[in-house]
Amino acid sequence: MDTIKNSQNGDISIRPETPPTPQETETLQIQEEGQLADRKDRLNKTTVEGLVRKSNRILVSISSHRFPFDFFPDTLNVEEGRITVITRQFFFNSQVHSVDIKDISNIFINMTFLYAQLEIVSRTFEDNEIKIFCLRKKEAIFARRLVEGLRIFESKQIDTSNYSKEELISKLQELSATKIVT
C-alpha cells in the first residue's frame, strides 16, 4: 500500500499499490523457481554425500577361525547400510553375499563349546539364510548387537552418516545392550 500525504489539506490518502506487470510477475516466478532448484540441488548433494559416507564405512569385520588353522576364512563385514558375507572355499575362489540392513528379518547366534555361528535370515534371498561358522563368541555377539542396532535405526529412519564411526558403534552398543545368556 502506498501512503501519500496531501500537504495542502493535511489529509492522508491511501492508495493501493499498482499490480505488478506480467513481466515482473514472470521475473518473480523465474527467481523463485531458481531458488527452489538451488535448494533441491543442495539437498540432493548432501543426500548423496551421506549415502556415499554410509556405504563406504565398515563398522566391523570379523573372520572365521577353524582349529588349528583356517586357510580359507569366511569374513563378515558390517557396514552402515548392509552386511557383506564372503565365503571362501579355495585359493582365488570366493562367494559374496550382500544383504541390506532393511532386508534382514532376523539374526541368530548358535553357540558351541569353542565357537559361535551367526545365522542371518533375509527377506530377499531364495535360500533365506546365510550362515557363518566358527566365529569367536565375543565377536559374534558384538556383530549381532551392531546389526540389531542398525535394524532399529533403519526402521526409525535415523540418518547415521552424521556420526563418526566410534560414536555410531557406541550408540549401537547402547541401543542393543541386552544380556545374552551363554
UniProtKB/TrEMBL annotation:
Residue stretches of biased makeup (Polar residues): 1-11
Superkingdom, taxonomy of origin: Bacteria
Region annotation (Disordered) ranges: 1-24
Protein name: YokE-like PH domain-containing protein
Originating organism: candidate division WWE3 bacterium GW2011_GWF1_42_14
Upper lineage: Bacteria, Katanobacteria
